[in-house]
Amino acid sequence: MFEAHFQTFEEPEGGVALTARLAAFREELLRRKLTGFVIPRADQQQNEYVPPADERLAWLTGFTGSAGMAVVLLQDAAVFVDGRYTVQAPKQVDTNAWSIQSLVEPPPESWLADRLKPEDRLGFDPWLHTTAAAERLKAACTKAGAELVAVDTNPVDAVWHERPAPPLGAVTIHPMEYAGESESDKLERIREEIARLGVDAIVLSDSHAVAWTFNIRGADVSHTPLPLSYALVPKDGRPRIFIDHRKLSNSSRNHLEAAADVQEPDALATSLRDLAASGASIALDGATAADALSRLITDAGGKPVRSSDPIAMLKAMKNKVEIKGTVTAHRRDAVALAKFLAWVDREAPKGGLTEIDTVEALETFRRGTGALKDVSFPTIAGTGPNGAIVHYRVTRKSNRRIAPGDLLLIDSGAQYEDGTTDVTRTIAIGEPTDEMRDRFTRVLRGHIAIARAVFPDGTTGAQIDSFARQFLWHAGLDFAHGTGHGVGSYLSVHEGPARISKLGTTPLKRGMILSNEPGYYKTDAFGIRIENLELVVEARIEGAEQPMNEFETLTLAPIDRRLINAHRISKRELSWINDYHARVRREITPLLDDEETRTWLHAATEPLVSSE
């Protein structure tokens, strides 16, 4: 009945089976007269999802998380992960060959500085590190008296004999009915940013920026309609796009050539050298531009100017057409979610469902909309202890049966041409424990605090992140991930520059879409997360002395009332829950085509009554 077209459940290679690769890699380092090498989880543009040909970290170590790094020395080796992957990494990596270390505090450079010796030669691939990252590595080497060596070719590739070919996904046009702004108007705004920066040109090293600027989409990486490409936009004259011509149809080529010169990727280096030779100053995105680009410009006599990518902010602030599209996408998605949640409530108590069953079912319900292009990331469906693994991905080996007394955490999203969705619900299977209800209620109160937040212009995500944590903190609890990330418009489900996080320094602007997803995870027991997407809008406050903003919730799916401890929430929180559920019922019921789901939705959105 159900099947997944966009996701697989095969177990990735890992553990001791990969240890021979580490030995072969060390032999390659010796051949190159290197005493160590740094392997980031990255491609040339620091994309979250990278093509199979760039999954060097996973191939060498077995670790498949979306963020991480490995360092191989001749006598030592470590895999560095952040708080999301502290449970996952030891299960995938041979811990006899690799130690698992923190990616954040202390950073990998501290580990390196303690282990490098004078005269050591630490290699790195300058195409896979930003200049800032390369500078941190160099500082660690200098502290130890070692040398940092930029390699011409990656030694991982030399021992990866069955490395996949680079992707050739077809480029498609993102029409005005979804984009809402022409390429020429976007380029005019980008040139204003070039003038503000006082540079001669800007390199678009982020493929998302290229896709947004020129209104194209692609299929080069999983789950994000991304055409891997670069662009060079001068302050005067025509921009250039660097993209493999094999990805272009006649129509997509004509579309691009109307706005820019279209060249092969190899021409980027030549164009930069020619421009730099005149002493030009060229802006590079500090977050995505490879250190190799900065070196190339400097060597040719130009001046690389590192800055934050101005296109990232332009792209993050959605226009009226994009906002209308995402509202439509979320209503469509809500129909699939209602059918799915009703199905889980009917079938899970029978004891026959597994995690894979739920992943396949949810994707099938979304495909039933007739508009699904892809899932926006591999669905996280964790029941019982698997739910405590923040970025858990079910495999046929890990697949767990959903049992009465479990919590099922399901985090998923969809890619539609008019919008990108991301939603998490935690579902009680049978009777939850008092502890589960207490933790869920604390997470929900944090979620509501974000959803109800009112804040002045200039407020950053870091300033409101603690709103989501306060009720957990009161019980000595917390969660080891950010509260929210930006979301693109039929682009990346994890979009910068804004986020709700302790590290979120970008002001939240009207038109931005961010997730609101506090959680709680009890290792080896259960996980809880509640996630809606929020749109930043103007807050109209009578008598306000400055511009104020608030969130408008986009996601429309019931929150499990069975897990809410009603006498532990305030009247305002109770009112928010009941108003939200009334809105879900009002907007989604007319869109449902089956009475069974309508009946379930009516019950799932009944007003909650406080026991006070």
TrEMBL record:
This is Aminopeptidase P family protein. GO terms for molecular function: aminopeptidase activity. Belongs to the peptidase M24B family. Residues 329-537 form the Peptidase M24 domain. Keywords: Aminopeptidase, Hydrolase, Metal-binding, Protease. The lineage of its organism: Bacteria, Pseudomonadati, Pseudomonadota, Alphaproteobacteria, Hyphomicrobiales. Residues 548-608 form the Peptidase M24 C-terminal domain. InterPro entries: Creatin/AminoP/Spt16_N, Creatinase/aminopeptidase-like, Creatinase_N, Pept_M24, Pept_M24B, Peptidase_M24_C, X-Pro_aminopeptidase_P. Residues 21-152 form the Creatinase N-terminal domain. SUPFAM superfamilies: Creatinase/aminopeptidase, Creatinase/prolidase N-terminal domain.
